[in-house]
Amino acid sequence: MSQMSTHYPGATRVEPVNRHTLAIIVDNEPGVLARIAGMFSGRGYNIESLTVTETEHEAHISRITIVTTGTDSIIEQIKSQLSRLVPVHRVVDLTMTGDAVERELCLVKVVGKGDHRVEAMRLASAFGARTMDATLTSFIYELTGTTEEVERFIKLMTAVGLVEVSRTGVAAMARGPGSM
Amino acid sequence: MSETMTGAEMVIRALQDQGVEHIFGYPGGAVLPIYDALFHQDKVRHVLVRHEQGAVHAAEGYARSSGKPGVVLVTSGPGATNAVTGLADAMMDSIPLVCITGQVPTHLIGSDAFQECDTVGITRHCTKHNYLVKSIEDLPRVLHEAFYVAMNGRPGPVVIDLPKDIQFKAGTYVRPANNQHKTYHPTVKGDAERIRAAIDLIANAKRPVFYTGGGVVNSGPHAAALLREFVHLTGFPITSTLMGLGAYPASDPQFLGMVGMHGTYESNLAMHECDVMINIGARFDDRITGRLDAFSPYSKRIHVDIDPSSINKNVKVDIPIVGDCAHVLEDMLRLWRQKAPQVDKIALKEWWDKIEGWRARKCLAYRNSTETIKPQYAIERLYELTKGRETYVTTEVGQHQMWAAQYFKFEEPNRWMTSGGHGTMGYGLPAAVGAQLAHPDALVIDIAGEASIQMMLQEMSTALQYDLPIKVFILNNEYMGMVRQWQELLHGGRYSHSYSESLPDFVKLAEAYGGVGIRCEKPADLDEAILKMINTNRPVIFDCIVDKTENCFPMIPSGKAHNEMLLNDYLGEAGTDIGSVIDEKGKMLV
Ligand SMILES: Cc1ncc(C[n+]2csc(CCOP(=O)(O)OP(=O)(O)O)c2C)c(N)n1
Ligand SMILES: [Mg+2]
Predict the structure, then answer these.
(1) In terms of DSSP bridges, do strands B97-103 and B70-74 run parallel, antiparallel, or are they unpaired?
(2) What are B112-140's pLDDT values in tens digits?
(3) Which of A33, A162, B118, B556 has a Cα-to-Cα distance from B382 of 20 to 30 A?
(4) Which of B183, B284, B317 to mutate to test the interface with A (most CBs of A within 10 A)?
(5) Does B276 lie in the same domain as B217?
(6) Which atom of ligand 1 is nearest to B480's Cα?
(7) Among B125, B128, B312, whose Cβ lies nearest the Cβ of A73?
(8) pTM for the full model?
C-alpha cells in the first residue's frame, strides 16, 4: 500500500517527439492570441515559434503559425484543443500535409573591424543575405530562409562579431494549388 | 425588428428573447444599471443568492435538472472572482451557463480602478468562451452568441464581461436571428462509415460492455431513451460514470452499477475483461480508468463524443465517432434494426454468467448495526422512502457523495446533480436551490457531509426567502470522511486536520435560518425521521449522525488497475468465495 503515494495514474510510456508546423485561421478578436498561447501553457505544450498577423483585414481574419513539438498523440490533442476554441476557424498541420514551404526572416547585427568584418561580408554574400544598414564598424544583415538556414547563418556570424539577433518565427504554407 | 434601448435593457431583453425565466445573482456597483432594468419588468425572475459561487452552482442545478441554460448575474471584482469556482465546476462537468459580470467603465479598464479585475483573463481557462464587450454595437450579438456557444457542442459556461458605461449607452437591439455562429459549428451527426464499422464490431462482440457518461444526459432525454432501446435490443451489460447516472435505469438487470474508483466490482471487472467497449458520452477520466497501461487490456473501443479533444486524449480508441449522443445513437439503432445481426448468443451467455458471478460478490454489502446508523443504510432508507416520487438529488463532495451514487438508484436522467470533474465541496446546497426552483413541486434533497455543507451554508437563507423546501440530508460522521479514508489507507492513519472540530448544532442552525431541523442518531428512528423530513414542506436540515469510521468501498486505489480493487471485508450473507470469481490470482487486495 505504501507505494501508492499519488492520487493519480502514473505517466504512460515514452513516445518519440516530433516537430510540427500548424497554421491556424482565427477571428482576429481581442484576446484570441492569449486564448491560444494560454491553451499551450495551461496544458503544458511547447511553443517553439509563433507568428501572427491579420491576413484579411475586411473579414478580421488572422493567420497564426505555430511550430510545436510533441509525441503524435500530443500533437493530435493540440490540434483538437485548438479546434475547439470558439474563434478558431481551421487548424492545418502543415507537417502532415507534406513538405510545406517554411520561411523565416532574421536581422543580425555584427560589429567588428579588419578580418572579422571582411569575413562577415563574405558569409553574408554566400548566404544571400541583404545588407540593411552599414557603418564603419557594423552591419545589419537580413536573411530569409528556412529555420535551419537561419540557425546556421547566426551560428557562423557569432564567430565574426554578432551582437544582436531579431527573428520573425516561421511563416508557412502548403505546396501545390490547394489553399486553406 | 430592431429597437433603441440601453445596454442594461438589452441584457434583460435578450434574456427574455432567449426564454430565460430565472436568473441567479448578487448586485454591486458595476451591475446597478442591469438591476435597474430588472426592476422594471417581471418576465425574468431574479433569485438573490448569498454568495456568487452559490449563484453559479444554483444555475448549474437549475440547468442540469431542466436541460435549460443557467444564467448568472454578478458584479465586477469580488463578484466575478467569487464566481470563478462555480465556473470551473461547470466547465469540468459541461454545464451550459451564461454568466454576466459587471466591469468598470471602459475608460478605467487597466487603471486598477475600484473593484476592477481582469475577468476575461481570470476566467479564460475555466469558461468555454468569454467576451469583454467594449462597444454597444457588439452587445446584442454577444448576448445571443453566448447562449448559442453555451448550449451547442459540448456545453459549458460562457462569461460576458460588461463595462458599466456600456450598460448605460443607448444602442440598437436586434433579436436573435438564426442560431448560427461565424466559426463555431460543432459536428452533431456521426460519420456514417464509422457508425457502420461500430455496428459490425458490436454485432460480433463476445464480451461487450456499454460505458456511458454525462454526454448522454447532456444530449437530452431523447438520447437516454435511445440508449435504453439500443441496450435492450443488444442485451449487453451497461455501466455508467458518476455523471451519467440515471441515463439508464439503475433497477434494470442489464445495469451493472457505477464504474470507476468507487464503482461496483461487476462494472469494473466487466470493463477490464470486455472485448468490445462502447463508450457513449464518457471521457475516460482518471477516476474511471485507474492505471492507464492496465486499462481494459483486451478490448476494441468505440468512443462517441461531441468533443473531438476527448477522443484519444487519455485512452486510444479504435473507432472514434465525433457527434452528439442522440444523433449517433439514432443512426446506430436504425442500422442495427436494418441489419438485424445475429449476436453470438453462446458467448454472451458465458459473459453474463461471468458477470453474475462477479455480481454475486455483492460488493455493496455492508455490516449493518442496530447501534449506530451506517451511512450506506441511511442512503438505502432515503432511497426506499422516496421511491416513486419525483425526486432530485444533489450532493456535496466526499464519501457521502459516493454512497449516494452507489445506494440511491436513479431511474431517469437529470435527477442526479453532483460535482464530478471539479469535485467542489459546497456544490450541493445551492444546486438544490436551483433544482427546486426549476421543479417547485418535486422533492429535492442535498445529500451532504458535515464539512462540505459549511462551505455554502449561507444559501439556506436563499431557500427560505424563495420558499424552496429543499432537504439537506447530512451524513454527519464528524470527519472529512473521504480525507480520513485516504489518510487511513495511505498515510498510516495519521488523521492530520481531517476531524470536523467545533461543529455547529445543525438543528439549531436550521431553526436560526427559519427552517426545520431534525436529528437522528439511532437506526430504529431513521425511517420515521426521514418520513418527517419528506412531509415537511419547508427547508429542512437533517442531521443524520452516522458511523464515524466507515469507509467507502469498493475502491480502486489511484494508480491501480480495475482488477486491483479494494473490497469491503464483509462478504454478505450470500457472499461467494472470492477465488471462484477471479481468474487471475493475487489481483485482489481485500
Ligand atoms: C472546495 C474543496 N476543498 C477541499 C476538497 C477536498 N475534499 C474532498 S472530500 C473532503 C471531505 C469532505 O467531508 P464531508 O463533507 O464531511 O464528507 P464525507 O467525506 O465525510 O462524507 C475534502 C476536504 C474539495 N473536494 N473541495
Ligand atoms: Mg463528514
Answers:
(1) parallel
(2) 999 999 999 999 999 999 999 999 999 99
(3) B556
(4) B183
(5) yes
(6) 13
(7) B312
(8) 0.94
